[in-house]
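Practice problem: Membrane fusion protein, Cu(I)/Ag(I) efflux system
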Amino acid sequence: MSRAGWLAGTLAALAAGGAGYGAGRVSDVAAPLSIARAWAGFAAGTPAAAPTPTGPVVYYQDPDGKPVYSLSPMMTEDGRLFRAVQASEDLRFDRPAAEDGSGQAGPGEGDGPKNPGRTVRYYRNPMGLPDTSPVPKKDSMGMDYIPVYDGGDPDPSTVTVSPGRIQRTGVRSAVVERRVVSRPVRVPGTVALDERRVTVVATRADAYVDHVEDVTTGDRVRQGQPLVSVYAPEINAAAAQLIANPGFDGARRRIRNLNVSEAVIAEMERTRTVPRAITWASPRDGLVLERRAIEGMKAAAGDTLFRIADLSRIWVLADVPEHDLAGIRVGEAATVRVPGRSLAGRVEVIYPQVNRETRSTRIRIELPNPDGLLLPDMYADVEIATGATEPVVAVPEAAALETGSRQAVLIDGGEGRFAPRAVELGRRGDGYVEIRAGLRAGERVVTAANFLIDAESNLKAALASLAAPTSDQEGGR
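Answer key — structure tokens:
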């Protein structure tokens, strides 16, 4: 028969089969598979007859080829029977060829890879049930039993996964690298005065304000600049005693104890006169935060007349949540952001108590403020770079398996082999977690679908702990 004649006959047969199939007859041969094999024979130049399906019925498929399956006979909505699919028709792209070179996968091979040169000891239930078989078989769901070989993995928890299954389950892995693991802690902060740079101008005796200089709240003053003049009877009495007894050290000490400046005392000693009012000057360069002095007022001893602060250095106070506090150390770098500017500083102090209501601890960052941009009570955003400054062994956080009492990763051994390994986890940050023990750089770990593999690994290890079937048990099955 010529190729053209054979092709015509084949197409006619297929058309007749399709017509009979559309009339409602159930065919045991899959039409798509027959067409593929017929076309393969035509391409090779020789007719290829579709082999008769063999083996038990493994499932039933929609007669129109739709991806609808059933484990038992059923019918479509229009009354047609589902097509029975036998074992030889169940094509699997990830099924390896049989060792006999036939190119067809033998029963019981499932998704497990072949191991040439190794003897199958027995076959175990694919669902992890305590059921074994000395020969290949399928379970009630049509799944192949998994072969267990002599001289198997030294670690019973090692799992071997075929390339097809790796692709279907989305298994991915990554190389273990050394990297800097940091996790910035971002908290709101408030600008505050440096308590060491605030000064109050006050008298140590009852006094009357005689004159106030043209200085008010918000003005910047210099050290030694006059602020206020006061009349204090107690100070004047001490000054008169000093002038009357210039060599008497007790008189000089008394007027100094009343907080009269050395410059004023020297002027009284030079002129040998007691001024009606004593002038108080600014004790430092800074900003007038508060002016309470009013001409003619009476000020009791200790009353604040002026409050002055040096703003050349400023504090930023931030409350860090309790669960973030463990990663913060004194001296760690911090970034403070205020409207229009970002400033770099360091954590200077971690306050030694936790706020009961907010469960947070206050930290202090000191910043230079030469241009006076930072003002008291201004809000700021604080970012603290916690974590190691040197590279450490780290893996993606998705690779870590934690159960409370167990910390592990899945090692990708290549060729579809995976095994769990206990590790010690450290700091986390930027999507990575530090590995303090158990891994070295260059190894590969599973980062996706690792929980599925880990579950199968635990199951395999549990099954391995059971007694393997004896030869008598195997022979009696």
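Discussion: The longest strand covers residues 341-354. Students who identified this feature from the tokens alone can consider the problem solved.
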